[in-house]
Amino acid sequence: MESMEELIRLAMEAMKRAYTPYSGFKVGAALMTEDGKVYQGCNIENAAYTPTNCAERTAFFKAVSEGERKFSAICIVGGMNGVLSSYTAPCGVCRQVMREFCDPETFRVILAIDENHWREYRLKELLPMGFGPENLRESETERTP
Ligand code: THU
């Protein structure tokens, strides 16, 4: 289990690898699995714009592609040209990706500016009444008229 300080440091380190020739807005994420392993991610932009991948999804897709399915927390940092001056919240698409793999009641989303300034949320606060894997289970669809 990493300390909060260490998780924030790993997100800041990941941010340095952001590829942002178009927006200049750099984001870093550090995603922690239930057994304490950390996957880092940065945003990766594209000349065609829409293929851009957010830092959070980079971290999730790296982890899931390595066989991870259980996560406890993600730390996110971001700022224009990599200058951390305010909290960067995850976009709606990334919240939905979190919803796919994480328990909204327990998954922690930590937004940080530096090792001493951070805020913690549960996924359910950031994505209330989300649509998730349970909605597509047979028992659920049976109830649908
Ligand atoms: N971005 C992220 O990586 N994560 C977020 O939560 C918000 C937005 C990136 C996408 C794009 O490269 C840049 O920030 C500006 O939108």
Residue stretches low in confidence (pLDDT < 50, at least 5 long) are: none
Which series of helices and strands comes N to C? Answer: HEEHEHEEHH
The distinct ligands, each listed once, are:
tetrahydrodeoxyuridine
State the end-to-end CA separation: 46 Å
Strand content is 25-35%
What's the total count of β strands?
Answer: 5
Helical region count? Answer: 5
C-alpha-based Rg, rounded: 16 Å
User: What would you call the shape?
Assistant: globular
Major sheet description: 5 strands, mixed
Helix content: 25-40%
Name the structural class: alpha+beta
Indicate the multimeric state. single chain
Strand order of the largest sheet: 2-1-3-4-5
Mean pLDDT: 95
SSE layout and pairing:
Blueprint lengths: L3 H12 L9 E9 L4 E5 L12 H11 L5 E10 L11 H10 L6 E7 L2 E6 H4 L11 H6 L2
Parallel strand pairs: 3-4
Antiparallel strand pairs: 1-2, 1-3, 4-5
This protein binds tetrahydrodeoxyuridine.
Description:
Strands 2-1-3-4-5 form a five-stranded mixed sheet. Strand 1 and strand 2 (38-42) form a beta hairpin. It starts with a helix and ends with a helix. The chain is of the alpha+beta class and 145 residues long. It has helices spanning 4-15, 55-65, 92-101, 123-126, 138-143; strands at 25-33, 38-42, 71-80, 108-114, 117-122. The chain is globular and about 50 Å long. The chain has five helices and five strands. The structure holds tetrahydrodeoxyuridine. Tetrahydrodeoxyuridine (THU) binds at residues 20, 23, 25, 27, 43, 45, 52, 54-56, 88, 90-91, 94. Tetrahydrodeoxyuridine binds next to strand 1 and helix 2.
